[in-house]
Each structure stands twice: as C-alpha cells, then as structure tokens.
Write a structure and sequence with these properties.
Blueprint (H helix, E strand, L loop, with lengths): L4 H14 L12 H12 L15 E2 L6 E12 L5 E11 L4 E2 L2 H12 L2 E2 L1 H16 L3 E10 H4 L10 E8 H4 L1 H12 L1
Parallel strand pairs: 2-5
Antiparallel strand pairs: 1-4, 2-3, 3-6, 6-7
Helix pairs in contact: 1-2, 3-4
Length: 187
C-alpha cells in the first residue's frame, strides 16, 4: 500500500477550511504537504509484517527471562487520529535455545505502533507474533502510554497513563514468574 499524498493534502485543506481557516495564508501554505508526509511516516507500519523480525533465530543455551524494557514508541489512536505515546516492555523465556536479536523486539513494537491503532492491539499483536515465531515458554508484553485523546480533548486529564498487558504461555499459569517480570520492569 502506498500513501496517497495528494488525497491527504486535499483532505487537510478541507479540514482547514471547515474550521474557518484560510489554507492559502502564509503559515498554512505548506501544511497539507507536511501533514501528508507526517502521516506517511506515522503509518509506515501498515506495509510491514512484524513477524519478519523473528525470522532470524540464534541458538543459545538460555531458558531464562529475556527482557527489553522502556522501548519508547508513539502511535495514532484510530478513534481520533491523535497521538498516544509511551513505553513498551517485552519479555520472553526462550525454548530450546531459540533466541532473537534484542533489537528485533523493539522493531516489532515500532512496526505495530506505526498504524492507526489501539494500545490493547499493540500489546497483544507483539505478544502473539513472538509466540508464533519463537515458540517460547512464555511471553509478557506491558505497554504504558499517555493518550492525547484523553489529554487534549474529552476528559482532559494530562499525565494519565494507560497500562495494558498480554501474558502468554508459562506466565499465564505461573504467578511467581509473572511477578518476576513485573518486578524487573519496575527496576
């Protein structure tokens, strides 16, 4: 899928007109082009399959928790097309020595976030991709974010954070293992 810049530019121009602005005034002349470019970048995850990051697997005798925490991300709320942003924490326990490069966990988060999105979907999509491709003992994904749709409109509560989790495999049954990951995230 390629982004139709002209269509976005036309839509932005119409929005500016609809709110009573003059899209031909100096400060707004290039705004439709800038917005089209920004949307192409913000939604570039639409063309990428997050599972591709888990194709290259390394063999390592390690069957303990692997955690990459504080992965910054931004996304766009699919309900209001305004940003939400925060941190993701991704943990898994390898099975049979199947590990993946650490950067691939961050790349998966980034790819999934760069779509019109819900936080809950980011969390579960990343967890599901890891379970499917790496077949680990278990996965925990925790995402915490501030949503501009709650900050700048509606309830207007800046600083409020939403936390979502997806727990798979051994972490579903083993409360101690789940607690260990949560404690590691808090460090």
């Amino acid at each position: 899928m390629s982004v139709d810049h002209a269509k976005i530019e036309q839509a932005v121009r119409m929005i500016l007109e609809a709110v009573g602005e003059n899209p031909d005034r100096e400060g707004l002349l290039d705004t439709p082009k800038r917005v089209a470019k920004m949307y192409a970048e913000a939604f570039e995850g639409l063309d990428v399959d997050e599972e591709q990051y888990f194709e290259t697997i390394f063999s390592e005798d390690h069957e303990e928790i692997v955690l990459v925490k504080d992965i910054p991300f931004f996304s766009m709320c699919e309900h209001h097309l305004v940003p939400f942003f925060g941190k993701a924490h991704v943990a898994y326990i390898p099975r049979g020595g199947r590990v993946v490069g650490l950067s691939k966990l961050a790349r998966a988060v980034e790819t999934v976030a760069r779509r019109p999105q819900l936080q809950e979907r980011i969390t579960s999509t990343v967890a599901n991709a890891i379970m499917k491709k790496l077949e680990p003992h278990g996965v925990v994904v925790v995402v915490e974010a501030e949503h501009m749709c709650m900050t700048m409109r509606g309830v207007k509560k800046p600083g409020a954070k939403t936390v979502t989790t997806s727990v798979r495999g051994v972490f579903e049954q083993d409360a101690a293992a789940r607690a260990e990951v949560i404690n590691l995230i808090k460090l």
